[in-house]
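pls design
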């Protein structure tokens, strides 16, 4: 066995020294392998050369099969890499972005080997590919609330490689949060939600930049944070915060993905009056009467329900940032967890809406 490996190494080294191409060298190694198999079949039992060859035919076949598997894997990674950085993508990168201005200043640096492997399941999707993955890497989103909806959304955004996430929440992790706010852990109780969530994001994907903002979102902070991001994700609890996020998003002409849950039901839509869709105030112009829309603390919520809506939010974010599929502009998706039913409602801009009427 040692004799064969030394022979192969000598052939490889000698060929390299003479500048023979890598493909030819692999061909010679392959021929050597076939010759070994042939000798093992032809040579009589007890022949001296059999001892030099070491293994049996079966062992050499297993060795060859393992080598072939490694080679195939390397070829697949190479193909993904070429696809990620192909000239065709560079050309299409120059076309107008579908939304949010993500592609307006394309940073087309090729994906690293680690990125190609981490995002390989995205890269083979026709709708995302290398171009989409770079758009995700270049994107900046604002997430309001690291609670029940924000937790799964943040984890999936991190997993998907959304490059920069600004996260606003002034709350701390409480024992009663852990039934559904899956980015936090028992040992995080008492810690600020933004730092706990940042820990969770970095544990999953150190390549994501998190900007934690441990403050209560008010109109001033919203007006400071929202311009310049590609998309706002609002999973906050409470009408007042939702309304001010909507106001600032409309003013900055930034699309707003908004989801909410209560008890067994949830809803999600993409508000974007700058591109023809309604804003939140078109649908909900005034705060619901007390008791009609109880918060999770007041009315309860099934733990996985915000997981469903938060995960939908992350999926819609990927679509919005890459231009894949059809998003939720002008459509409100309702999910009834108790009966396992979904409904899609077309929603229109409301003439004279005090928030988006001037857009
Ligand atoms: Zn409106």
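designed seq:
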């Amino acid at each position: 066995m040692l004799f064969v490996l030394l022979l192969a190494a000598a052939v490889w080294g000698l060929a390299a020294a003479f500048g023979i191409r890598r493909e030819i060298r692999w061909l010679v190694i392959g021929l050597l392998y076939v010759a070994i198999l042939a000798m093992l079949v032809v040579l009589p039992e007890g022949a001296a050369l059999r001892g030099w060859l070491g293994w049996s035919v079966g062992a050499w076949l297993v060795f060859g099969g393992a080598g072939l598997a490694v080679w195939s894997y390397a070829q697949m990674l190479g193909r993904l890499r070429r696809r990620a950085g192909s000239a065709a993508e560079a050309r299409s990168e120059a076309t107008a972005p579908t939304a949010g201005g993500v592609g307006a200043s394309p940073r087309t640096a090729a994906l690293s080997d680690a990125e190609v492997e981490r995002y390989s399941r995205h890269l083979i999707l026709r709708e995302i590919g290398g171009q989409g993955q770079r758009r995700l890497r270049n994107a900046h989103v604002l997430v309001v609330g690291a609670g029940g909806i924000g937790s799964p959304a943040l984890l999936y955004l991190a997993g998907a490689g959304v490059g920069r996430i600004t996260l606003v929440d002034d709350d701390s992790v409480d024992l009663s949060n852990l039934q559904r706010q899956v980015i936090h852990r028992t040992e995080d109780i008492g810690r600020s939600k933004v730092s706990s969530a940042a820990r969770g994001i970095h544990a999953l994907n150190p390549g994501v930049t998190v900007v934690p903002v441990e403050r209560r979102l008010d109109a001033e902070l919203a007006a400071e944070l929202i311009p310049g991001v590609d998309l706002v994700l609002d999973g906050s609890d409470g009408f007042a915060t939702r309304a001010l996020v909507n106001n600032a998003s409309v003013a900055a002409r930034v699309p707003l993905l908004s989801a909410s849950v209560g008890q067994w039901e949830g809803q999600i839509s993409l508000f974007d009056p700058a591109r023809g869709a309604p804003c939140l105030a078109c649908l909900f112009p005034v705060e619901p009467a007390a008791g009609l829309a109880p918060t999770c603390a007041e009315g309860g919520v099934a733990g996985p329900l915000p997981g469903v809506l938060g995960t939908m939010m992350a999926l819609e974010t990927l679509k919005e940032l890459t231009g894949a599929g059809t998003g939720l502009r002008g459509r409100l998706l309702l999910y009834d967890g108790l009966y396992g039913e979904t409904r899609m409602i077309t929603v229109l801009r409301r003439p004279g809406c005090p928030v988006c009427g001037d857009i």
